[in-house]
Write a structure and sequence with these properties.
By secondary structure, this protein is an alpha/beta fold. It is built from 13 helices and nine strands. Strand 5 (about 150-155), helix 7 (about 160-170) and strand 6 (about 175-180) form a beta-alpha-beta unit. Helix 1 (about 15-30) crosses helix 7 and helix 2 (about 50-65) crosses helix 13 (about 280-300). Bound molecules: phosphoric acid mono(formamide)ester (CP) and norvaline (NVA).
């Protein structure tokens, strides 16, 4: 059966840890994997902008001996020019993998339902699984462990927060979400995390309570792609959730700062935190490359 990677929960706990081990090996000795996906084509469909996702998948598939095709938002017009099912049924005849970044999560599940080649989610409104995987690989590198690590995510209960909850469950970490009222993460995903291995999943509207004693403090933009019209209203609501020196100071003294990027300095995080020695945001960005190579190899081999 074709395996897809639409959310972190598509990999078991064992597969998640295996993926980190493979990604670490690929990072250490990339040449060993130069022909792992020789001649294979990855179609990359983007309905939203990207820097990291586009570059890391493009470079990643090439480092594995394959190649990518970038398909811009206007070219395919998913569901408008052509149905999602028909796009999948065409692509599977020509490529060996599909990466898609889009809006509704149902678009990627429908694509996967009609595709006999693996579909990888490069971000939807509900999940950003490759980000969550890169983030926990980074935590493993810096903290030397995953189980029992305390991650505090401060901000909107969004796609990134959801993937962090699912990844925390897969590795047995604690995750605390500190968000304004009305911006809670999806209750079903929180419940799934609690039932599937997270050391704990806490949702609080008090940012200081979320960050207290954390090993990792994580921030993301207050308005995600597709929510641009809400940006001004959200700015006023989210101010108490800014990760600044005072809030970061409530975490453990050796806590690290993480952000999926792009970041808005002076909004969700101050320059004093994101540009400090305790920030690992560019290590995170680099790990997108390594972890996605491991995911592609697992799915497309
Ligand atoms: N973090 C992330 O997915 O970055 P891009 O939106 O630039 O791909
Ligand atoms: N939550 C952000 C993440 C960007 C990588 C968004 O969806 O825009």
């Amino acid at each position: 059966m074709t395996r897809h990677f639409l959310s972190v929960r598509d990999f078991s706990a064992e597969e998640t840890l295996d993926t980190f081990a493979l990604a670490s090996e690929m990072k250490r000795a990339p040449a060993r994997f130069a022909e792992a996906l020789k001649g294979k084509a990855l179609a990359m469909l983007f309905e939203k902008p990207s820097l990291r996702t586009r570059v890391s998948f493009d470079v990643g598939i090439q480092q594995l001996g394959g190649f990518s095709l970038y398909i811009s938002p206007n070219e395919v017009s998913l569901g408008k020019r052509e149905s999602i099912a028909d796009v999948a049924k065409n692509l599977e005849r020509m490529v060996q993998g599909i990466m898609i970044r889009t809006f509704g999560h149902a678009i990627v599940t429908e694509m996967a339902a009609h595709s006999h080649v693996p579909v990888v989610n490069g971000l939807t409104d509900t999940h950003h699984p490759c980000q969550g995987m890169a983030d926990f690989l980074t935590i493993q590198e810096v903290k030397g462990k995953l189980e029992g690590v305390r991650v505090a995510y401060v901000g909107d209960g969004n796609n990134v927060a959801h993937s962090l909850i699912e990844a925390a469950a897969r590795v047995g970490a604690h995750i605390a979400i500190g968000c304004p009222e009305g911006y809670d993460p999806n209750a079903g995903i929180v419940a799934w995390g609690r039932e599937n291995g997270a050391a704990s999943v806490t949702v609080t509207h008090d940012p200081a309570a979320a960050v207290a004693g954390a090993d990792v403090v994580y921030a993301d933009v207050w308005a995600s792609m597709g929510q641009e019209s809400e940006a001004a209203a959200r700015k006023a609501i989210f101010v108490p959730f800014q990760v600044n020196d005072e809030l970061f100071g409530k975490a453990k003294p050796d806590a690290i700062f993480m952000h999926c990027l792009p970041a808005h300095r002076g909004e969700e995080v101050t320059a004093s935190v994101i540009d400090s020695a305790r920030s690992v945001v560019f290590q995170q960005a680099e790990n997108r490359l390594h972890v996605q190579k491991a995911i592609l190899k697992k799915l497309m081999s």
